Amino acid sequence: MSLKTFSKTLFLLLSFAFATRATYNYLTKKKKEEEREPRKIHEVIMFSYTDQETKKSKYSRCMISHSMDRLLHYLNQPQQSLDICMYVWTNVDVTNAIIKLHHRGVKIRVIIDADMAFTSGSAIRRVEKHSIPYRWMKSTNLMHHKFCLVDTLSENPLLSPYVITGSLNWTNQALCGNYENCVITSEKLIVQQYQQEFERLWELFKPIVN
């Protein structure tokens, strides 16, 4: 092999090695940056009494629908805070999930409609026993919101605050019998507007006193 051919071959090999290394460094850096960014969450869950298929779930002792499993998945994700604004709340699986979060140290606040707070089967009795703060307002106007906010009080940049909202009350009828919808999104502007509404009502409403 001539010196010229050897030099050319060596140059090509070094160029290939350099390009391979540069590509590897770029992809590694990009992956690390993606891992540092909060994940984006966008999902719609539809509930219907025609959804007859049930499955085992780590979130319930009973067989539950895929839709219920997805809702419980999101309700088990909070790391720092969970703010709940719910017109009616009676479902046991949801209540169990919230109480487990409370015992894990997640900060929980609850706003509920005054007339629905102590209806038959209301979860508020159990919430009260576990010293989870909750508020209402006696009024002719219903507190008809149905949403909750996950980790919006956290300062951890790796967490993805999100809101769960829609037509869905946390009742057996809504979860297993009605046509209902539930939207989960981490879209920042939308989450911020729900958070503003929750904070406004939290200041406006009063703690429940026996």
Automatic annotation (TrEMBL):
One of its GO terms (molecular function) is RNA endonuclease activity producing 5'-phosphomonoesters, hydrolytic mechanism. Residues 71-202 form the Phospholipase D-like domain. This is Mitochondrial cardiolipin hydrolase. Residues 1-22 form the signal peptide. One of its GO terms (cellular component) is mitochondrion. The keyword Lipid metabolism applies. InterPro entries: PLD-like_dom, PLD_domain. One of its GO terms (biological process) is piRNA processing. Belongs to the phospholipase D family. MitoPLD/Zucchini subfamily. Keywords: Hydrolase, Lipid degradation, Lipid metabolism, Signal. Pfam families: PLDc_2 (PF13091).
